[in-house]
Automatic annotation (TrEMBL):
InterPro entries: AraC-type_N (IPR032687), Homeodomain-like_sf (IPR009057), HTH_AraC (IPR018060), Tscrpt_reg_AraC-type_HTH (IPR020449). GO terms for cellular component: cytosol. PANTHER family: HTH-TYPE TRANSCRIPTIONAL REGULATOR GADX. It comes from Rhodococcus tukisamuensis. The keyword DNA-binding applies. Keywords: DNA-binding, Transcription, Transcription regulation. This is AraC-type DNA-binding protein.
């Protein structure tokens, strides 16, 4: 079962008491030992925390309980992941650390970054075999909002904060936290920001400390793919949805020129194009099987400028159209509205 660090419960006792709850019986009913609060570096089952937050909202009558939990959370609440991210030079690389290594802090959620038309979307999804309640979802989205606020200048606001569920009975707390641009009954849970925000400097960064943070990251999460081909695969998977995936950019990230990169890939029997196709095939089939993306969305996430280009590529790879493949799998892809 997915787990998360007990630091996620920071502030729970105070918020619960502020809305008239006795938190300890609720914790026991949810399967949590109250002693958890004395071990903020430990791991606890995510489903117990989800149940605790939902039960607390129900018992208190506060359907904004998750947002109230935000408190002083920010990048520092992510523990080791936050320590590393805060030293990255710009917001894009800092958020890249958060997105790629969130499982070191919380195994229950997946964070996706996509870019299109000058907008960047950070979407929250539950991990496999995990269901997120309203309160947990709102706390995660609020935490992402606060992390971005830590990196960006004072007064920054997103283009939109989105929730797939309906509006709360009283939206005052949400408006105070997120600002005026909140959308409910949306197709995603997440934050939409200007792409330019990702390229802004990270105001927390200290260039002197970054090498030590990177070394610490290597100890926490050593690369599974240490070969050049494996590193290229990792970078393609990260950059593909961002409209910034190219052999030139990847070569630069690996501190080599394009010719050297092509030569090293050839030594392992690979090419940039073969790895790109492999990553695209894996992502395309997984997205269609999940059934939570339209073909247009999948096309954009795979770096195609037009749906027709994606369809041609898909037919070349699989011998059938995306629609035919989804029907064969029994997972039709919805034609969902765009933001």
């Amino acid at each position: 079962m997915p787990r998360l660090r007990s630091a996620v419960l920071n502030g729970y006792l105070e918020v619960a008491k502020s809305v008239g709850l006795n938190p300890y019986p609720l914790m026991r009913v949810s399967g949590l030992d109250p002693a958890t609060f004395s071990a903020t570096a430990g791991w606890i089952e995510a489903k117990c925390v989800v149940e605790l937050f939902e039960l607390s909202a129900l018992q208190s009558g506060c359907d904004d309980f998750g947002v109230r939990m935000l408190g002083n959370r920010g990048v520092s609440n992510l523990g080791p992941v936050g320590l590393i991210a805060r030293e990255e030079p710009d917001v894009r690389s800092a958020m890249g650390i958060v997105l790629r290594h969130m499982s070191l802090h919380n195994e229950a959620i997946l964070l996706d970054l996509t870019e299109s038309g000058g907008l960047a979307t950070i979407q929250v999804r539950p991990a496999t075999d995990m269901a997120l309640g309203r309160q947990s979802t709102e706390l995660v989205v609020a935490s992402i909002f606060r992390i971005l606020s830590d990196f960006l200048p004072d007064g920054w606001l997103p283009v939109a904060t989105c929730f797939a569920h309906g509006a709360p009975a009283n939206g005052e707390v949400h408006a105070r936290v997120f600002g005026p641009s909140i959308y409910y009954d949306h197709e995603i849970d997440g934050i939409i920001i200007a792409t330019g925000d990702l390229d802004a400097p990270n105001r927390l960064s200290n260039p002197v400390l970054r090498p030590f943070a990177q070394e610490y990251l290597g100890l926490l999460a050593p690369r599974e793919n240490s070969s050049t081909a494996g590193q290229v695969r990792d970078l393609i998977a990260t950059l593909l949805p961002t409209e910034h995936c190219s052999v030139t950019r990847i070569a630069h990230s690996l501190r080599m020129d394009r010719r050297t990169l092509h030569r090293r890939l050839a030594q392992s029997g690979e090419t940039y194009s073969s790895i790109l196709d492999s990553v695209r095939k894996e992502h395309a089939t997984a997205s269609i099987a999940r059934g939570d993306r339209s073909f247009t969305e999948i096309s954009s996430e795979l770096g195609f400028s037009e749906l027709s280009a994606f369809s041609r590529w898909f037919r070349q790879q699989f011998g059938v159209s995306p629609k035919a493949w989804s029907v064969d799998q029994g997972e039709p892809v919805p034609e969902r509205q765009q933001y």
